[in-house]
Amino acid sequence: MTHADLIVLDQVNKRFGDHHVLRDVNLTVKQGEVVVIIGPSGAGKSTLCRAINRLETIDSGTISLDGTPLPAEGRALAKLRAEVGMVFQSFNLFAHKTVLDNVVLGQVHVLKRPKAEAERKAQELLDRVGIGGQAAKFPAQLSGGQQQRVAIARALAMDPKAILFDEPTSALDPEMVN
Q: pTM for the whole thing?
């Protein structure tokens, strides 16, 4: 493995009962590389994303991030999840928090970033994804595409080594996809 290998999957297998979803998957993603996994519904794309972030356990094989095998649980796993951003198909925003607070929360509680600095970074990222004017609203007040942009800003705010997107453009119009 070279220093530039960021995510490495080696002979990864995952079954759900008799359904062999991931079969001997080998994948190397280098730093700075963008990899797109395409396939029909049910092919295992979401399961692969969830396995890389250890939201889904694997049956066999190994997954490494930046040269370190994924931990099974505990603080090491929490640290890994802070280093791998995830944008879910369903966004997973906190409905009772404003857009700004959704982007601030992880920075303050996980990265221990001062609140003022976290708010500054959150606003900058919300501006970058084109919804800075929506910062005081709640997720339910936004369209699906706007909620997805909040989720992207939230992932970017954590300064992750890698970001995994599950159906990242499902709620976006063609102009926003670009």
A: 0.78
- Please tell me the distance from the alpha carbon of residue 90 to that of residue 178, in angstroms, as a whole number: 20
List pLDDT tens digits, range 134-157.
999 999 999 988 998 999 999 999
Please tell me whether residue 147 adopts helix, strand or coil conformation.
Answer: helix
Whether pLDDT at 178 is above 80: no
Q: Kindly list the distances between the CA atom of residue 52 and the CA atoms of 20, 148, 150, 165, in Å, as whole numbers in the listed order.
A: 17, 21, 22, 11
Instruction: Catalogue all structural domains in the chain, each as residue range(s) with its CATH number.
Output: 5-70 (3.40.50.300), 99-177 (no CATH)
Give, as one character, the DSSP assignment of residue 98: -
Q: Which two tokens stand for residue 3?
A: 């220093």
Token couple for 19:
């359904």
